[in-house]
Every structure is written in C-alpha cells, then in structure tokens.
Write a structure and sequence with these properties.
Elements lengths: L5 E5 L4 H12 L3 E5 L7 H11 L5 E2 L6 H11 L2 E6 L6 H6 L1 H22 L3 E7 L23 H19 L5 E7 L1 E3 L18 H9 L6 E4 L11 E2 L1 E3 H16 L6 E6 L5 E2 H12 L5 E4 L14 H7 L7 H21 L1
Parallel strand pairs: 1-2, 1-4, 2-3, 4-5, 5-6, 6-11, 7-10, 8-13
Antiparallel strand pairs: 9-12
C-alpha cells in the first residue's frame, strides 16, 4: 500500500476509533491501529476487516509505554500523522476512580508526544471533549466560550491534553501542528452493522443502555435525574452520529497534511442542536417500535444540566457539516444491537 499516506490511530479499536479507521481507509489513507484492548474488543477488528475487505495493521500495545510507541514509529517509519483516541472515557467512573483516569489519559498523551517528536511526526488530531466547558454561562457554546473546570476527572484530563498542546505552541520549541476536536455526544453505528458501540460491562452512555434495555438484556433503563433546569427537567446534550464524527477526523487530517492549519486549532464537533434524554427515549421508541421500561434515578456525579454546540467555526473553516438525523442515528444503533443479539444467538 505504498501509495497511501499512513496515519496512526491510537485507540483505533474503540467505538469512535474503529469508525475513523474505516473512514480513513475509504478516503485513501492507510490507517495503523495501536490499542491495548483494555476498553475495546477484537470484534472491532473483525468488523473493520469485513467492511473494508482489508486487514488493518494493529499493534496491541499500551500508549503509556514510550518504548512500545518508539518501536511502532520505528517499524512503520513513514507515519504522516496521528489521531489520538486512547483514553478512558466514562464520566461517572472517572469520579469514582480519578487516579486511573489521570494516569491513563495524561501519561499516554505525554508518551505519545515524546515519541512523535523523536520520530519527526508533526501532525496530530487530538480527541477532546465538550466537557472542557464545564457548566457554560450561555448556550450554544462556541470555541471562544470560557473553559471552566470540568465536573469530572475525565473532563479535566481532556482539558490537560489541550493545555499541553497550548504550552507546546507557546514554548516555541515544537514543530507540532495539532487540531483538537471537542466532541459532543457520539451515538449510532456503521450502516453495515459490523461495528458500533460495544461497552464492556455496564454501559456508561445513554444510547447503548437504551438499546440493551429494548433488546431485553437489561430489565430497565435508569435516567439520572429529571429535575434539571431544562424545559422538561432532563439533561440536554448534542448527539452526533459517529460516522459524521469520524468524517470530521478525515477532514482534520487532510487540513494538517495540506499545511493549512495553525500550530493549534480547536473545533466543536456536534450537530448544533440539543436534545433531552426524554426526547432521545421518545425518538428511539418511534424508530424502533419498542416501548422502553425506564425509571428516574438520582442525578449522577459529573453530569452538567445542558450543553450543545455552536458549529459555525467547524462549518466555515473545516467545511464540516453533520448529515445524519437523531432518528437515523438511533435506528443505526438499534440495528447494531439487533446484529449483536443475532450473533450471540447463532453462537
């Protein structure tokens, strides 16, 4: 595959990473995965292979290990850029196990940047998060909305990641060019039904909890609070289809490789529209034909009441625009869940 530009994808077997790997390959790149599979499954590699008809190279390594990353950069030799996903991502878990999150998310970032510098790899797309805004004073949030201390250690690690990139630029000693994408809430699955969100153990995100409940794998869905200062009392989030999100990474990579970016650029990646948890439940019931058994529980530590994106900057500078509706995103997640159920029955 000598005609393809090589992009290293850390955490490439994860939910977002696997979809980005597919989009990279289909855009003419050669993705190379590094993943320790602490929060992902081999089935993602199988799904990627079935979609592409090609086995993407995968290194089973921990990104905290500089030695492992050094070996990968040495073996691959001509990596043009990196997309960095490798991180733990559950807000609630991070509140309960903060050291786990600080050690994994921050150390892996530092190790990666060290080895990128040594290998002369100068282009990075960083997986950031809207959690860096904390509880914003006004909505929707723009990239100029003041960053506040997030409500969770997970969010703080993403803020630290951005701070590291900012300080590298300020130092004047780094040739790194980076784009930080502040995701909102990715949902859905690939249209093939071959890859999707596959939480290990109890889901931490709303949609897999919904689909598992609808599929009868869970007795009920617990909604964390209905007493927030929002129109219907439920949390409001900006839900973006994971394939749309994946395409934003391809656009960011192309921008970096074309030399069009500043040393550090930051973009919101969302739909620009907020939906409440209750609206998501009702939309899922509509597209799936399944009535959900849900109950109201106490608020969850680390959750903010309401956040959604202003996407003007990503539209005008990146040329990025989402294509998939909330209903179609939820239907793709349901189809993925049905495929999982079918596979488990056949096995």
């Amino acid at each position: 595959m000598t005609d393809r530009i090589k992009i290293l994808v850390t955490g490439g077997a994860g939910f977002i990473g696997s979809h980005v790997v597919v989009e990279l390959y289909e855009a003419g790149f050669e993705p190379v995965i590094v993943d320790d599979f602490s929060n992902s499954s081999d089935t993602a590699l199988t799904g990627i292979s079935e979609i592409l008809g090609y086995d993407v190279k995968c290194y089973r390594e921990d990104c905290k290990s500089e030695a492992a990353l050094r070996r990968i950069f040495s073996e691959e030799k001509n990596i043009a850029g990196v997309i960095h996903f490798a991180a733990f991502k559950a807000v609630g878990e991070s509140v309960k196990e903060p050291l786990k999150y600080y050690r994994n998310n921050v150390v892996s970032m530092i190790s990666l940047l060290h080895e990128m510098e040594k290998a002369g790899v100068k282009n990075l797309v960083f997986s950031s998060s809207c959690t860096v805004y904390g509880i914003p004073d006004a909505l929707p949030v723009t990239e100029k909305t003041p960053v506040k201390k997030p409500f969770s250690p997970y969010g703080i690690t993403k803020q630290i990641g951005e701070d590291i990139l900012t300080d590298l630029v300020k130092s004047g000693n780094s040739s790194l060019k980076s784009i930080a994408l502040r995701y909102f809430n990715p949902i859905g699955a690939h249209s093939s039904g071959k890859i999707g969100e596959l939480p290990i153990g109890l889901p931490n995100n709303l949609v897999p909890f919904i689909t598992q409940t609808a599929a009868g794998l869970r007795d009920k869905l617990t909604v964390f609070g209905n007493d927030y200062p929002t129109p219907d009392g439920f949390n409001i989030r900006d839900y973006i289809h994971v394939v749309d999100l994946a395409k934003a990474h391809v656009i960011a990579v192309k921008r970096l490789l074309a030399g069009k970016s500043e040393p550090l650029e930051i973009y919101n990646i969302g739909t620009g529209k907020g939906n409440s948890v209750l609206e998501v439940i009702k939309a899922f019931e509509k597209v799936s034909g399944q009535k959900l058994n849900y109950q109201i529980g106490p608020r969850r530590d680390g959750d903010v009441p309401e956040i959604y994106a202003d996407v003007t900057k990503s539209a005008t500078e990146l040329g990025f625009k989402t294509e998939t509706s909330l209903e179609d995103s939820l239907l793709s997640a349901w189809n993925w869940q049905l495929a999982l159920v079918k596979e488990s029955v056949s096995n």
